[in-house]
Amino acid sequence: MEYIIIGFLWLSILLYLVLGGADFGAGIIELFTSKRHRYRTRNTAYHAIGPIWEANHMWLIIAVVILFVGFPVIYSTMSVYLHIPLVAMLLGITARGTAFVFRNYDAVIDNMQRVYNRIFLISSFITPLFLGMIAGGVIAGKINPDTNDFLTAYVWPWFNWFSFTIGLFTVALCGFLASVYLIGEAPSGDDRNSFIRKAKQWNVIAVFCGALVFIASLVESIPLMQWIFGNPVGATAVIAASISLLVLWLLINKGKTVVPRILAGFQASMILLAVSYAHFPNFVILSNGQHLSLFEHQAPAATMTALAWALIIGSLFILPSLFYLYYSFQKDRHKGSFVEH
To answer: Which family does it belong to (predicted)?
Structure first.
């Protein structure tokens, strides 16, 4: 049963990165679009994410519930020592969702729309930034459970160059995912070419930020290079991601839109696999050389069995409904527009 639960945990993190990442990325590319073209980008993104933006957070909720119920020691450690970036990320999610609703569905159109727009754009950037910094804090080996110093306990585990560069890479990856996805949603040829240019730009930015992650890992003596390239699975994942990127651009240049979306998600999955495989089943790396393991730090067997069955049975009800939601809005996407500001 533990492998079923771990599988659901890994899949929920991946789907939140891919689907939620593309959702955040829509706001990120709008943030960095010139004011002259921002309305068109916003309108296209709205029709793409408007119907399903709230559903993407389901994957984060599933991951949190799995950690809380199945791996309470890991959950409590992250909640305590990474509570600052966790709160920042949750505030970003809340602010972004609230601003999205009010800027699009507010009955009164006034100057507050500008405020809603700004909150939405900034929180779209901040949320994946802190999500990446949390990931960095989990694997950086800087969580010190033996210290009584506030900064050492609650700030330095995530506020460091390695975690920050992972945060930037996460932001860039979200921008890339959203750009690739929105190519197929563009209502005209000019808009489509615009999103292709954005995808290329965010692709370059993601590669640059990825290089920064490796540089930061060398500076802070984190064996990231060994984790990724020191085993055949990690090396194969990197090669597969690189090849799929070449195929993605070949297909985009030929006017394809559906398969490139799948390949973009595949690249994200390969990145996650390459990083996580090397120290599996360890989930949190501590500064004293110890680890919090998905095998050694799990709930009692009865709890794990109940959780596994709950995930299996729940998925039989939730997943078909979710897929039908995506299918329905893709098949019959209603038309609408923003009020431009």
So the answer is: Belongs to the cytochrome ubiquinol oxidase subunit 2 family.
Give pTM, 2 decimals.
0.91
Q: In the structure, what pLDDT confidence band is assigned to residue 335 with cuts at 50, 70 and 90?
A: very low
- Are 166 and 213 spatial neighbours (Cβ–Cβ below 8 Å)? yes
For the stretch 3-44, pLDDT in tens is 999 999 999 999 999 988 888 998 999 899 887 777 777 777
Task: Note whether residue 26 is domain-resident.
Answer: yes
Which structure tokens are listed for 241?
A: 């991601």
Closest Cα to residue 11, out of 67, 59, 72, 69?
59
Q: Is residue 333 part of a domain?
A: no
- Positive/negative CA dihedral, 333, 334, 335, 340: negative
When divided into structural domains, the chain yields a total of 1
How would residue 279 be classed by pLDDT, with cut points 50, 70 and 90? confident
Give the separation between CA 317 and CA 294, rounded to whole angstroms.
27
Q: Where do runs of H (alpha helix) occur along the chain?
A: 2-15, 21-31, 35-49, 58-70, 72-81, 83-105, 112-139, 150-154, 161-183, 189-219, 224-229, 232-253, 258-277, 301-331
Whole-number average pLDDT of the chain: 89
Determine the 3-state secondary structure of 44 from DSSP: helix
pLDDT in tens, 146-169: 999 999 999 999 999 999 999 999
**DSSP 8-state class, residue 1:** -
Work out the pLDDT band at 288, boundaries 50, 70, 90. Answer: confident
CA distance 294 to 234: 20
Assigned domain for 245 exists: yes
Closest by CA position to 329, among listed 18, 27, 12, 46: 46
Q: Give a yes or no: residue 236 inside a domain.
A: yes
Find the domain containing 296 and state its range: 2-328
